[in-house]
Design a protein that fits this description.
The chain is of the alpha/beta class. 26% of the residues lie in helices and 26% in strands. The protein has eight helices and 17 strands. The strands form four sheets. Strands 7-11-6-1-4-5-12 form a seven-stranded parallel β-sheet. It has a five-stranded parallel β-sheet with strand order 14-13-15-16-17. β9 and β10 form a beta hairpin. The radius of gyration is 21 Å and the shape is globular. The termini are far apart. Flavin-adenine dinucleotide binds next to α6, α7, β16 and α8. Pfam families: ETF, ETF_alpha. Belongs to the ETF alpha-subunit/FixB family. Its cofactor is FAD.
C-alpha cells in the first residue's frame, strides 16, 4: 500500500543532523512506493531543502516563524499540526532524539494515533510493516506491526542507513504558514556547556571513559584518541558522579543510548546500566586492568591492561594510518 509519509528534519549548529536523512530512509520503506515529504521547521530554513532532496526526499515543506528558532513543544506542535492538516500524511517519522522523543507522543496523543518509538529497523513483509525496537534496556528486541491509521515512528540514530547522496535529485519546496501563538514557554537564550566536537548520539566512533580514568585530567588521552578517529568522548555514570566529566557525556540507562560503529570503553567495568546504553554498538573494544571485568562479556576485542599505556599507543598507531 503506497503511503504519503512525512520525515521531520532537525537542524543543529547550522547543519542538518544526520538523523534527518535516516528518517527519510525509514520513511521511504514505510511509504512503500508512495511519497516522502521532508519537513523543515524553523526561521529561514528553506536553504536546507536541497540537501534533503539529495538524500531522497520527494518534496519538502517548510514552516518558517520567528517562534520556531528554538524548539519548544508548543511552537513545534502547532507547526507540525499545520503541516499535517495540509498534507494529510499516513505516516510521520522523527529521530529518536530529545526533540523527537518530546514532540512525537504529544502529536500522536493529539491525533489519537499510535506511536512506535526507538525503531532500529523497518521491513515490509507480506504487505505488513514490521518495526523492530529494543526492549529491556537492549537485552531483547520486539517486532511491532502497524495495522491502520496514521503511524508515528521515531528512529534511533545510527541504525537505519541514509540513502546514498545524489546531487542530481531535486523537487518542489512548499511553504506552509502556521499561526503560532499562546506559547507557554519561549527560549530566550541557549547556553551550551560544550560547543566543540562530534555529537555523541550521532558519532560513528566513541571513546568512553569510566572511573578507571581517575580524574578530569585522565580524560585527555581519550580526547586525543577520539580526535584522531574523528569521534566523540563519552563516559560512564561512575566517571560523571566522580566529577571527572559533565553529565552530558553519560552513556547508559539514565544517560544517552548510542550505537556507533566503534565503541572503545576505557576503565569501565560494564555495569548493566552502562551496557543498556552501548551494547548495540557495532564493534566494542574494552580496555580494562581486570580480566574478569563484565565489559569483556560484550566486547568484540578486549585489551587487558592499563588504559594510560594502551590508549596513547592506539593514538600513535591510528595517527600513522
Ligand atoms: P567502576 O565500576 O568503578 O569501574 C571502573 C573500572 O575501571 C574497573 O573495572 C577497573 O578494573 C577499571 N580500571 C581502573 N583503573 C584502570 C586503568 N588504569 N586501566 C584500565 N582499567 C582500569 N552507569 C552508567 O554508566 N550509565 C548509566 O546510565 C547508569 N544509570 C544507572 C541507573 C541506576 C538506577 C543505577 C542504580 C545505576 C546506574 N549506573 C549507570 C551506575 C552503574 O551501576 C555503575 O555504578 C557505573 O556504570 C560504574 O561506572 P564505571 O564502570 O566507570 O566504574
Amino acid at each position: 500500500m503506497a503511503r504519503k509519509v512525512l520525515a521531520l528534519a532537525e537542524i543543529r549548529d547550522g547543519s542538518l543532523r544526520n538523523v534527518s536523512f535516516e528518517a527519510i530512509a525509514a520513511a521511504k520503506i514505510i511509504a512503500q512506493g508512495g511519497e516522502v515529504v521532508s519537513v523543515l521547521a524553523g526561521e529561514s530554513v528553506q536553504s536546507y531543502a536541497n540537501e534533503l532532496f539529495f538524500h531522497g526526499a520527494d518534496r519538502v515543506v517548510v514552516v518558517e516563524h520567528s517562534h520556531l528558532t528554538h524548539y519548544t513543544p508548543d511552537g513545534y506542535s502547532q507547526a507540525l499540526m499545520a503541516v499535517i492538516d495540509e498534507e494529510k500524511p499516513e505516516g510521520i517519522v522523527f529521530g529518536h532524539t530529545a526533540l523527537g522523543k518530546d514532540l512525537s507522543p504529544k502529536l500522536a496523543t493529539k491525533l489519537n494515533s499510535g506511536l512506535v518509538s526507538d525503531v532500529v529497523s523497518v521491513e515490509e513483509e507480506g504487505g505488513n510493516l514490521i518495526f523492530t525496537r529494543p526492549i529491556y534496556s537492549g537485552k531483547a528486541f520486539e517486532k511491532k506491526i502497524a495495522t491502520d491509521g496514521l503511524i508515528f515512528v521515531t528512529v534511533r540514530p545510527n541504525n537505519i542507513p541514509p540513502l546514498e547522496r545524489d546531487e542530481s535529485r531535486s523537487g518542489e519546496v512548499k511553504a506552509i504558514s502556521a499561526d503560532i501563538k499562546d506559547l507557554r514557554t519561549i527560549v530566550k537564550e541557549v547556553v551550551r556547556k560544550t560547543t566543540e566536537g562530534v555529537d555523541l548520539s550521532e558519532a560513528k566512533v566513541i571513546v568512553a571513559g569510566g572511573r578507571g580514568v581517575k580524574s578530569a585530567e585522565g580524560f585527555k588521552p581519550l580526547q586525543e584518541l577520539a580526535e584522531v578517529l574523528g569521534g566523540a568522548v563519552g563516559a560512564s555514570r561512575g566517571a560523571c558522579d566522580a566529577g571527572y566529566c559533565d553529565y552530558s557525556l553519560q552513556i547508559g540507562q539514565t544517560g544517552k543510548v548510542v550505537t556507533p560503529d566503534l565503541y572503545i570503553a576505557c576503565g569501565i567495568s560494564g555495569a548493566i546500566q552502562h551496557l543498556a546504553g552501548m551494547s548495540n554498538s557495532k564493534v566494542i573494544v574494552a580496555i580494562n586492568k581486570d580480566p574478569e571485568a563484565n565489559i569483556f562479556k560484550v566486547a568484540d576485542y578486549g585489551i587487558v591492561g592499563d588504559l594510560f599505556e594502551v590508549v596513547p599507543l592506539l593514538t600513535e598507531e591510528f595517527k600513522k594510518l
